[in-house]
Design brief:
By secondary structure, the protein is α+β, with helices and mostly antiparallel strands. The protein has two domains: 7-61; 65-266, Umud Fragment, subunit A (Ribbon). It has helices at 7-31, 40-47, 49-62, 201-204, 235-238; strands spanning 63-64, 82-86, 111-116, 119-130, 135-139, 142-145, 152-154, 169-175, 178-184, 205-209, 212-216, 221-225, 241-242, 246-255, 265-266. Strand 10 (205-209) and strand 11 (212-216) form a beta hairpin. The chain is elongated, with a radius of gyration of 22 Å. The two termini are 31 Å apart.
Length: 267
């Protein structure tokens, strides 16, 4: 089991430390009720207990708001977006452990936030393409599942096309009746090879060409792809995602301070 150390683990330790200071302050006040004096640092830490504890509880049990630093999920998610991550969709996960309080299961097509399987202190966001047992077919940047031929409808570039999308193809990909927009570089078209060293890929995948492969997703794992298919570090690079590393479901863009028009955009 890989245990990460991120902002949630930091908040957990701060909550425990400030809670201990709050208890010590109460103990000190009971021992010397008449003096009314106590160490200044102890009082400050005790006063922060409620604030830190509330922030920790919200981030772990309800929702989170991470910032996206890369373009790997464009056009769905843009670099600089702050996401609203719903922990109740799948169940909150306890810090310092991969134990979850199960409330639901990720579904094919969900935009999922997870701990990177090779560095669990880092959080990634990708689209879930393959569930356990699914056979995923990938051709020229487009995916199909369980005998469904990879197919996508190319979208016309509008007058308001973003600079980040110029010269690239936007396609509407449909997998098992759920649709989303992906971005493909016409000069690459999915020719990012599967990493033969990635855990699990060699035993569950067959590569037929530079841009064509097929994988059977093993039990307890998911196959994840970025919507920006030719500029994404995803399951093709680091392998299948273990179920216990799922962190939450990204449901909306809260805000992007470089583009306020993206505020409250549904994913």
């Amino acid at each position: 089991m890989h245990i990460g150390f991120s902002i949630n683990e930091t908040l957990c330790l701060l909550t425990l430390a400030s809670g201990a200071c709050w208890w010590l302050l109460r103990w000190h006040q009971r021992r010397q009720p008449a003096s009314g004096r106590h160490p200044v640092g102890l009082g400050l830490a005790a006063n922060l207990f409620a604030v830190i504890g509330l922030m920790f509880t919200c981030r772990v049990a309800l929702a989170d708001w991470p910032k996206v630093p890369t373009s790997s999920m464009e056009p769905t998610i843009r670099a600089g977006d702050y996401l609203l991550v719903n922990h109740l969709a799948y169940g909150p996960r306890l810090p310092f452990t991969n134990t979850a309080l199960p409330l639901g299961e990720p579904q094919r097509g969900d935009v999922v936030v997870f701990r990177h399987p090779l560095n669990v202190s880092r959080f990634y966001v990708k689209r879930l393409i393959g569930l356990p047992g699914d056979v995923v077919r990938f051709e020229q940047g487009v995916a199909g599942v369980n005998g469904e031929a990879p197919a996508a409808e190319r979208l016309a570039a509008g007058a308001d096309a973003r600079d980040a999308d110029r010269g690239l193809w936007l396609l509407r990909e449909t997998i098992q009746q759920r649709s989303h927009t992906i971005k493909i570089n016409p000069f690459v078209q999915g020719r990012l090879p599967l990493n033969p060293q990635a855990p699990g890929l060699a035993g569950h995948c067959q590569a037929e060409s530079a841009s064509g492969w097929q994988c059977t997703v093993p039990a307890g794992h998911y196959l994840m792809l970025g919507d920006n298919r030719d500029d994404s570090e995803d399951s093709r690079v680091w392998g299948f995602l273990p179920q216990e590393q799922v962190y939450g479901k990204a449901v909306r863009v809260l805000v992007n301070f470089s583009d306020l028009s993206r505020s409250w955009t549904a994913l």
